[in-house]
Amino acid sequence: MSRHAGALTAQRVAGRDVVAIQDTSELVLGGRRARQAGYGAVGKGGVLSGLLLHPVLAVEAGSGGLLGLVSMQVWNRGRAELAPRRRRTTAAKESRRWIEGAQQAGEVLAEARCITVVSDRESDFYELFARRPANVHLIVRACQNRRIERLTEEPADGLLFGMIDGQPEQGRFATTIPAAPGRAKRHAELALRFAPVALRRPLHGADPALPATVGLTLVDVREISTPPDGKPIHWRLLTTHPVAECGQVRRVIDLYRQRWTIEEFFRTLKTAGFDIEDADIGEPQAMINFVAAATIASVTIKQLVQARDGNTDRQLGDAFDPDDRPILEAVSARLEGKTARQRNPHPTGSLAFAAWVIARLGGWTGYYGKPGPKLMRIGLAKFNDIKYGTTLGLRNV
Length: 397
Prior knowledge:
The protein is α+β, with helices and mostly antiparallel strands. It folds into 3 domains: about 1-120 and about 260-285, Transposase Inhibitor Protein From Tn5, Chain A, domain 1, CATH 3.90.350.10; about 140-245, Transposase Inhibitor Protein From Tn5, Chain A, domain 1, CATH 3.90.350.10; about 310-390, no CATH class. It contains 11 helices and 13 strands. Strands 1, 2, 3, 4, 5, 6, 7, 8, 9, 10, 11, 12 and 13 form a 13-stranded mixed sheet that branches. Helix 4 links the parallel strand 6 (about 115-120) and strand 7. It is globular. The two termini are about 35 Å apart.
């Protein structure tokens, strides 16, 4: 399923600047009963049981439009993954998923004009930078206060965070921070610092065959004022993109901000669309298969929600097969009513046209509110039933 979804995504990325966003989410499926069924430990302390999902999503850099699934890994944690981290090689650690995700992005998205793999603090480990594919750039939110060598005329050994904290501001810009759970939308002013750095290979646990240093740029972004609800933004971003002036810094920040797409995707999978953690499937392998299928469907649902207002240039082929178009057009004609608000306002061949059809199948009337992930999930299931029905041949029995 993952390879098929990746092949479809590969057809959509040619000539585009693409952000490949990767992250891991725990799927909590129960406690003692789930453990007895064979599910591995998840959560702090290992009291709960479930699976882990690590998808890589392809997003167009300029528009933020979700292009599809690059790859996914779903696994049931065994005892080997719970052994002390320093006793295992990277190949035996769960952290290898970040390297594999970057490699899969380089392969699947090879026809893209530019590939940037974006990930959060959990992916900040030396081997990811040292082994990145040649056709892939990285933006990783720094977690480790690493040993560095400065790439300036006066090299000085030190630590990463102290070095950037000692730099003067190199610019500011204003931006809008969108609303999120527990946080209202707000306007913010951000201060910028950036500097080239060479990360040193860790003294312990790193493969001695890795290079002694890796050259990157550290971009430091800080919100000037303290917001009334929540902590001020402070990102330290390590990137392979060239950064020599504030315009390039802004581009790195804008690319990193696309990471929010995968948080919305997990919300669609877990609560807003599928409620996948409520699935009562006792056999772990069957649940892994279900998670894989739901992941692919959640990508389509997220694409439909993005396209519902007709404010993007997404085309039908970004989410549907070519053979789906006549079916969508026929269903649209059947669903349309007499009033303007009961007619599909979007051009045929656009993803917005399909989003209107799927939402109507899901129970949206066209009058009130905007269709969300749950309506899109219901509508997509009904559309797939209709599509299956078109393939049935009637026999004279």
